[in-house]
Amino acid sequence: MHGMHGEDGTVQGLCELADIPYSSCGLVGSAVGMDKIVMKAVFQSMGLPVLPSIYCYRAQWQQDPDTVIARAEETIGYPMFVKPANLGSSIGIGKATDRERFRHAMEVAASFDRRILIERAVEKPVEINCACMGFEGEVLPSLCEQPAGWDEFLSFEDKYTRGGGGKGMKSLARQVPAPISAEMTARIQNYTADIFRMLECKGVVRVDYILEADTVYVNEINTIPGSFAFYLYEPMGVPFSALVDKLVLYAQRALAQKRESSYAFSSDILNKAISGTKIIKK
Ligand SMILES: Nc1ncnc2c1ncn2[C@@H]1O[C@H](COP(=O)(O)OP(=O)(O)O)[C@@H](O)[C@H]1O
Ligand SMILES: [Mg+2]
C-alpha cells in the first residue's frame, strides 16, 4: 500500500465507496500526506517550521530550465534537495551542490513526476521521527527515534537493505528514544499531534523532522509508515498485537461515525422547476 495508488487516498476512496472499514488515514490526510508540495503548504499554514522551498511543473522545467535554475538559485541557493512531489522511500530524490548537479537532479525527478519540489538542503542533518496513533479525540504521539547517520541522505537502499533484513524502516539502526532534550521531544510530539488532527488522520502515521543544530523543521508525514512504527510504541508498553487491535478499532469507529452523518438533504427545488416555477438565478 506504500506510495501512489495505495497510500495517496485512492484505495481509501474505494473503501469509502464500498463502505468498507479501513485502518489508515481518510482521503484528505492520505492525499495531502502523499504530495510533498501541498503537504508543505499545509504545514506552513499551521505555523510549523519548514525549510524554504519552491516548486515547478515538469513542463516548466522542460520549456525553460534557465528560469527555474535562476529562481532556485536566487530564492534557495545551493545545496538544494530536489524531490518528485509524489514519491517516497527516497526514490527520485537528489541533492544538488552546484548547477550541473541541479540539472541532473531535476532530470531524474522530472522522469518520476509532473511536479517537483526544490528545497534548501540542511548540511549534516539529524533526522528525528515521531509516530502518532489514534482517531478523533484519541491522539497518542510515540517516543521519538533517531535513525543512524548516513552519508548524504537516507537512500532507498539504506531504508530497505541496511541491516541485511530487507525489512524496511524496522531493520534500520536507530536510537529510541532519540538523544534530544526533553523540551525538543515535547515540541516534536506536540507538532506531530497537531498535524495528526489537522490532516484528520487515523491509524498510525509517522512525522519526520530534520534538526539543524537546535532548530527543528518538519520534513514530511508518512501516513502508512513502515511496520506501523510499532517499535516506537513497544517501549511505551503497547505490544504489536495491541497496536493492530487498536487499528481495527479505529477503522470500525470511523465507519460508525460515517454512518451517523446525514447524506440526504430534502428540497422541493426540482418539483418547483418541473411545475414551471421560475427559478431566479443570481
Ligand atoms: N532538505 C533536506 N536537507 C537534508 N536532508 C534532506 C532534506 N530533505 C530530505 N533529506 C534527506 O533525504 C531523505 C528522503 O527525503 P524525504 O523528504 O524524507 O522523502 P521520502 O518521501 O522519499 O522519504 C530524508 O530521509 C533525509 O535523509
Ligand atoms: Mg522520508
Automatic annotation (TrEMBL):
Known EC number = 6.3.2.4
Record keywords: Chaperone included? no
Keywords per UniProt: ATP-binding, Cell shape, Cell wall biogenesis/degradation, Cytoplasm, Ligase, Magnesium, Manganese, Metal-binding, Nucleotide-binding, Peptidoglycan synthesis
Describe the location of the ATP-grasp domain by residue ranges: 40-249
Instruction: Give the cofactors, semicolon-separated.
Output: Mn(2+); Mg(2+)
> Where does this one sit in the cell?
Cytoplasm
**Keyword field contains Hydrolase:** no
Query: Which Gene Ontology CC terms are recorded?
Result: cytosol
Pathway(s) the chain acts in: Cell wall biogenesis; peptidoglycan biosynthesis; Glycan biosynthesis
One GO term under biological process is: regulation of cell shape
What does the record give under GO molecular function?
ATP binding; D-alanine-D-alanine ligase activity; metal ion binding
Q: Which Pfam families match?
A: Dala_Dala_lig_C
Q: Which Gene3D superfamilies does this entry report, sorted A to Z?
A: 3.40.50.20, ATP-grasp fold, A domain, ATP-grasp fold, B domain
Record-stated family: Belongs to the D-alanine--D-alanine ligase family.
Which protein are we looking at?
Answer: D-alanine--D-alanine ligase
Q: What is the lineage of its organism?
A: unclassified sequences, metagenomes, ecological metagenomes
Gene symbol of the encoding locus: ddl_48
